[in-house]
Amino acid sequence: MASDLDTLLEMGFEKAKAELATKKTGGLQGALEWLEANQEKSYEEIIAATTSPTNVDDNPDAESFPLPAGETARSLVCNNCGKKFRSQAQAEFHASKTQHVDFAESTEDVAPLTEEEKKAKLEDLRRKLAEKRAGTLEQDQIDKKRNEARGIRPDTKETQDIKEELKKKEQLKEAVAKRKEKQDEIEAKVRIKAKIAADKEERRLRAEKEKAEREGRAAPTMSQTSATATTLGPVGSKPASAYSEARLRLQTSAGNLQKTFPVTVTLFEVAAAVTQDTGLEVQSFTQNFPKKVFDAVDFGASLKELGLVPSASLIVK
To answer: Has this prediction a pTM greater than 0.70?
Structure first.
């Protein structure tokens, strides 16, 4: 037959608390009552409390009524509530739980639990334990959902890496958007200059035609004026400061890229464009001739400031 301790362990009670319960109460009935009353306390809290227990005999307010001569005490009774106890340990526990201090000895036996009562007591205790565990699990789920709704997650290395990656993507997106805005602005200026030049050429041709008509000679054709302008125009190459765009040949591990950027674009924006096209993280650019390495310190400078105008070949690392 299983012992009281084995029965408590089969019910799922912590071994240390079950041993303490059987030691304090001396039986399954008292142990169940003790465990039920202390189910909210940890084993450490119970041990700490027992270092200064509430003892009925040490309480000056407790009243003791001795039995008449010849009678033997079979139990203790609480005069405050009428509850009977088999042992002094049970009475002390009752006093600590209820703050009752009026106890007396009794000649009445405390009837043990019948098998049916014991079974009902065990089932009731099992139900309470299950309800407590279910309540704890439900509260954990509620707290988890509340934290997820608020966007609260454990601050782990993985979440830090995700934040860094998102931040980097936002920077790249901003750089690309800024580069496109500058490119659109440059193209708009080129179109305006072309329009102004066309209007100027049209007025010049009209003036030439009117002058030829006044002088009685044939007006010059478009091809003649273009040829004259080409002959009279400068033949030498333009200085680097005269270019508005830079052509870059970018050698990456994923292949070569040919790209044209405004001279005001920074090397950081070039790196962002490479990352967008290839998915590679750019750490530096290397120019073979003249030999030079552009790292993160140079990323804030423009292509014009770095001398990469009108064209350059760079190795991406």
So the answer is: no
